[in-house]
Amino acid sequence: MATTPLKFRKRFSSSILLWVRSDQPRQTGLDYWKGPHSKIISASPGLDEYRQTHLAEANHGLWPSTPGVETAIPSGRKIDGVAQVTFQSVLSALAGGEQNKLAFKDEVNVFRRTLLYLGLPNWARWYEVGRQGDKVGSRVLVYLRRRDGVSGGSFRRFINDKLAPALAGTEALKELRTETFLPWSKGLWNTPNVAHDNPADQRFHASVMLGFASAEEQAAFFESGKLADLSAVLGRFASAAHAYQVSEALTFVRDGAILPQYQR
């Protein structure tokens, strides 16, 4: 019996992993990020979407235990949030130079470490899962590290051709987005007075955003046999799967327009 092809939109996206300053309350940093700092990024020309993904403070790793895969999130590298920026085109990614200069100067006011991960155009994919109008009540953001000996091309094909369709096939998701990354380079986002240390054995090569109708649906998904079977296959391609509970996903720019107030 024929199956309906999985529909998705290809995008050009980047993700900046963020650690807030530790010399002030964590929430102070997160509030500044979604306040003054968000206005700087939102004003960049050529954005299709700007979303801040705030990660829960207590995040030990939600991905099920899998032989040979690091699923426990190391406390010293636990991320506080991710700025996810989607561009309208390749040229628009180059149009934000002036706003980037302002962002560079402002980072030290809120962050202690920032790491930019970038894919080529069309390497990010937003999948059509669930039904139109479905609400997302709970999200998990997963970062994946490619296993040694697996080529970048093989890893991307696994994410796009195997992992994403299998995740969509569980019929548990209301949102599914994937990004695969170029090799990390400090030179792409070497901002002043902020750390950019990123040892080779700590780098990531893909991310997956999973959205669920509710926390209960999310819990059932992570306890399911389907995910356990999928994780066993994942272990052939990935050496780490760090699954973060999302506390807030705030959109500031949507469809190229700056929103008057961020939307959850």
Fold topology:
Blueprint: E1 8-20, H1 26-42, E2 47-55, E3 81-87, H2 97-107, E4 111-118, E5 124-127, E6 138-146, H3 152-169, E7 175-180, E8 206-212, H4 215-222, H5 225-234, E9 238-254, E10 257-263
Antiparallel strand pairs: 1-3, 1-4, 1-5, 2-3, 2-9, 5-7, 6-8, 6-9, 7-8, 9-10
Distance linking N and C termini: 39 Å
Write down the overall geometry: globular
Tell me what portion of residues adopts beta-strand conformation: 25-35%
Low-confidence stretches: none
What fraction, in percent, of the residue positions are helical? 10-25%
Q: What's the number of extended β-strand segments?
A: 10
> Spatial order of the strands in the main sheet?
1-3-2-9-6-8-7-5
In round numbers, the mean pLDDT is 94
Largest sheet: 8 strands, antiparallel, barrel
Using only C-alpha atoms, the radius of gyration works out to 18 Å
Structure annotation, total helices? 5
**Alpha-beta content class:** alpha+beta
Element-by-element helix/strand order: EHEEHEEEHEEHHEE
Please tag this protein with its features.
alpha+beta; 5 helices; 10 strands
Structure summary:
The protein is an alpha+beta fold and 264 residues long.
